[in-house]
Design goal:
mainly alpha, 23 helices, 464 residues
Amino acid sequence: MQNKMKKLGFTEALIVLIIVLAVMGIGVIGFGLSPQVPVMLAMSLVMVWAKWRHSDWATVNIGISEGIEKGIIPIFIFILIGAMISTWIAAGTIPTLMVVGFKLISVRWFLPSVFIVCALVGAAVGSAFTVVSTVGLAFFGMGMTMNLNPAMVAGAIISGGIMGDKLSPLSETNNLAAAVVDIDLFTHMRNLYWSIVPAGGITLVIFSFLGRTSNGASLSQIQRTVSILNHNFSISIWALLPIILVFACAGLKIPAIPTMLLNVFVTTGLLLVEQPRLGLNHLATIITDGFVAHTGNAGVDKLLSRGGIVSMMPTVALIVLTLSLGGLLVKFGLIEAVMTPIAQHLNNSGKLILAGLVACIGVNLFVGEQFLSIILPGRAFKQAFNQGGLSDEALGRVLEDGGTVINYLVPWGVGGVFLANTLGVPTIEYLPFVFFSLLCPVMSLLSGFAGVGLQHLKAPAKSL
């Protein structure tokens, strides 16, 4: 049993965590391996260490089970997103969004336009994943048509989606962070403005400089692409019904899973109306294996041959492995052994903010799971923040700035793998252009040391 293990010290826990991070970092970044293999190796090393520490296999199994349990809902959501992407393409929804987008989005100021629109959609639906896999996929296709840098286009889409997520009361991470620090949701969201508004403003300025394009260089290729889309897909107002349904469900505060299930059924119904001769077997193949475009144009075919439940399986496999690793690190107390001593010895506001950010980013790097990057540091630092005179609102903002927004930048993280798989751009390539996520921790840190926008307790709690 786990109680046979001797008390775990800070130094030993830190060494184990550094080895785990080094194995994953060298494998994914250094050798360019798929994240699944380095994560499996890291798990194996943790198990070997645990056995050397006289733990038994029952405890290992419990740690893995408890870790995976936290990811069941995200796994199911990703499977449904795969089905949504393929049916949205087949029914003409994403192609129609591309055609409409070319008319509404400024070609000259493409990147800042995409950032703004994705932020608005994200604020409405409360999910960066949904933004990227729907309108984001359409914008990505537009950017490729204009011969823009794929990583830069992905950065604008992802930055906008994440900012919108932070502006939405429907966001799961906003609600989770508010619950972890025990404050009102809207109080938590108002306090986030101190980070997200300046980070969003600077991001918009950067994309305005980077994203200025030449109309002449793009229009001819855009016109050819629009012609191909009109010829091969059903481009109509009816094709936009699925995305209208997403907004309607968001307005009614219907949870993600029933929203997506309803959307898949409605989209398949729309597809059968548009193509009455489409057999059920072919429809099931589209949902399972994804849509394959045959337009005669290699570029368009590559962009719109996507989706399907099977396409999500690499992401699902990595989620299971990553959550299993995270479950082991939590079960054996490795994360707690490092974070808790640090938190207990901090009483300066700036140092508290810095330590909290580092802890949140560290959990993302070691565990790769967005929710745990909020929960674990939230529990470890709550008392330290209060003893240092900082309010729960201050901790809540740190959890978002260092936890939520960073997960999308970790190559083996749940968010990073999903976005890379959806857009076809490796996490390491789009990372430098997700300016919003990179700037949020900086804004939080500046707030901590400058004391601007930092919420303090009316009467600082006494040290125990």
